[in-house]
Amino acid sequence: MVYRKAIIIGLDGAIPYFIKKYVEEGLLPNFEKLLSEGVFAEAVPSPPTDTPTNWTTIATGADTATHGVTSFYLHLPGETLPYGQKYRFRSQLAKYCKAEYLWKIADENGIPSIVVNYPSGWGMELKHGAIISGEWYMPGAPPKILSDSCTYSTSPSPEEKPLVFLGEEKLDLSKLPALKYRLSVKASRIAGSEWLYRDFTEEELTVFIEFYAISISGEKYDAVLFVQDNSAHTVKVGEWSNWLTCVFETSAGSVKGVFRAKLEKLSENGKSVKIKLTEIFAAEKWAYPETLCRELVEKGILPDASLEKVANEDKAYLNYPILLSYAKNARALLKLLTYIDNKLKWRLCFLHYHIFDSLNHHYLGYLYKDLPAYTEEKYEKALEVMELGWKIADRFVGEILEKFCDEDTLVVVVSDHGCLPSWKMISLRKILVEAGLLEYKWDDNLKRYRVVLEKTLAYPYYEPSYIWVNLKGREAGGVVEPSKYEDIRDEVLSVLKSTKDPETNTCPFELAVRREEDPYIGGKPQAETVGDILYYLKPSYQFWDGEVSILDSETMGKEEMEGPVIWRAKKIFGTHAYYTPGARLGDFTVNGIFLMKGPGVAEGLELKEPIRLTDIAPTVAHLMGLRKPKKCDGRVLYEALK
Ligand SMILES: [Zn+2]
After folding, report:
1. Separation of CA 11 and ligand 1 centre (Å)
2. How far is CA 498 from CA 195, 407, 507, 566, in A?
3. 357 CA to middle of ligand 1, Å?
């Protein structure tokens, strides 16, 4: 059987335990149907057991040593060691992936593929398909909303912005002298995005938009007029304009914005004006083919949740903003899939939905009775959130199955990793500082310690969980002579292995190995982005407690420098990225889920042995009659087929 159509529904962070639990409780009719009609297995991620890493693995069939997309932060040889930690999202770029994406092979075979909200593979073009960047920043893609909606007035209230009167002009379209006004819009959402990896000045992000108050009747001022690209757009009181454009000319290139304007108020003498602008949407650079950007904006379809309203049945989520935003996100994604399906008749879809990972990070620990912060009240609340979250996902999956899948469609539901309860923060920086391998100096302007690279021998990354030797000739600013490379690696290993948690008198590291010896990805040529030492934490230890700045080793706070090596987390009680594939704690595992259904696929079968996420791309390729991706490390899951 060769499938005509396949959909890979990616549910970030879905944990095997919950699917079983809630299906047994009868809460997830769509997952129940998938389980009874298809194959289920745990799915082992490629380390680091993180997000960009494993969505790349799922799409390429390659493990980390092969594809080289090591986690959120990539260190590339030739850069200084802190450089890669400045740019959280660049690992999502296809240009850093050394393996081949399945959708590229489909495209070569004329199969229309779509890649939606998928945190990997950005920056490619498909001849027959579409790639639409998602809710996260993608380097090379401006934020889809450049500026928030705002009202402008000649006598602005504190929430409004001013309209500036520029003078009178004579215009053919106005029977009274046209009154020229100007407003200024700041693309505030570009600042802080990782679009072009740079800081922008206020001026670069500001555009002026001009319009006229005009008189059509000749008796009073009764409309405003925007003149753009040699065409006139007239808007009467209470009306919305057509789509208008503006261009932000930044030092790093331009980005075109589109918006609509509503004339809320215009006095008869034209002197008092109130005008509302929608958000300014980016009209380019966030989807391929690029014409899709403007098309989707004008149809009110963005993959983000921001524009969606909730239906009545979603009111239960109102108490939990996180659930509400994912309920909206599901609707936005369904709208997008419907539109693209009508347009392209796609036959291969890679879709990503992030709900569970967010819930796990914030709530999972409360479902574990040995968590020090555990209380019955928090347990109940966490259980309610998880249950509602799974119901949202179940309905989302159900709607996808109903709208886009027929009996002959291959359906794969997969997660990139699971999650474990965690509560102990550990400072790897401090461990290396105390061992004399890493050096910081107080920076009075910054009010933080700043790394002294010329005295640093080993430098820690967290996502990926690697330590890099500051090697001369490889790293910009490297100081370790190549002849000392092995000595430094030995010293790092010995320091990690001798670290003790004073509370338990045990080592918080599960495993620390040289890159070539890693039992999960070692024993073969390694991508140059794989670190010199790979380490894994024991469950319950973590690095991230809600602030991503802590994952950047370039600086270090006074509190961390002077504090203990290990302390209690305050906010994040669920973690996955630092553990060995297959790690478990209580009911939970860092393994993800794998579900597959379609003709020729075994029915109602649970595989006893977990599959590997590297197996998905070759299996889908096999079932669609495509060649497997080059450099694929996985295999076809024959045991899942009839
Ligand atoms: Zn993830």
Report:
1. 8
2. 42, 57, 7, 14
3. 6
Question: Ligand 1: distance of its center to the CA of 157 in Å?
Answer: 43
Q: Calculate how far, in angstroms, residue 49's C-alpha sits from the geometric centre of ligand 1.
A: 8
Q: How far is the CA of 365 from the centre of ligand 1 (A)?
A: 17
- CB distance 413 to 41 below 8 Å: no
In this structure, how many other beta carbons lie within 10 angstroms of the beta carbon of residue 277? 22
What are 518-534's pLDDT values in tens digits? 999 989 999 999 999 99
Q: pLDDT at position 283, please? A: 94
Gap between the Cα atoms of 500 and 393, Å rounded:
41
Buried b / exposed e along 177-215 (16+ C-beta atoms within 10 A): bbbbbebebbbbbbeebbbbeeebeeebbbbebebbbbb
Virtual torsion, Cα 101, 105, 108, 113, nearest 10 deg:
-70
Per-residue confidence (pLDDT) for residue 138, from 0 to 100 = 87
172 Cα: distance to centroid of ligand 1 (angstroms): 59
> What angle (nearest 5°) sits at the alpha carbon of residue 294, between those of residues 274 and 201?
65
Centre of ligand 1 to C-alpha 535, Å, is 19
- What spacing in Å lies between the alpha carbon of 511 and ligand 1's midpoint? 22
Ligand 1 center from residue 417 Cα (angstroms): 6
Q: Are 510 and 534 in contact (CB under 8 A)?
A: no
Q: Which residues pair with 280 in a beta bridge?
A: 147
Strand order of the β-sheet with 223-228 is 164-169, 178-186, 206-214, 223-228, 231-236
Which of 570, 563, 568, 573 minimizes the C-alpha distance to 431? 563
What is the Cα–Cα distance from 251 to 201, expressed in whole angstroms? 9
Euclidean distance between CA atoms 417 and 44, whole angstroms: 7
Dist. CA 199 → ligand 1 center (Å): 28
Distance 419 CA to ligand 1 centre (A): 9
Question: Among 80, 162, 5, which residue's Cα sits nearest to residue 461?
Answer: 80
Cα of 397 vs centre of ligand 1, distance in Å, is 18
In order of start, what are the domains of the chain with their CATH numbers? 5-59+99-138+290-420+587-640 (3.40.720.10), 145-285 (no CATH), 424-572 (no CATH)
Predicted pLDDT of residue 309: 66
Q: How would you classify residue 491: left for phi > 0, otherwise alpha for psi between -120 and 50, otherwise beta?
A: alpha
Dist CA 572 CA 422 (whole Å): 8
- Given a contact cutoff of 8 angstroms between Cβ atoms, the answer to whether 353 and 330 are in contact is yes
Q: How far does residue 472's CA lie from ligand 1's centre (Å)?
A: 34
201 or 474: which carries more pLDDT confidence?
474
CA of 248 to the centre of ligand 1 (A): 33
pLDDT in tens, 405-455: 999 999 999 999 999 999 999 999 999 999 999 999 999 999 999 999 999
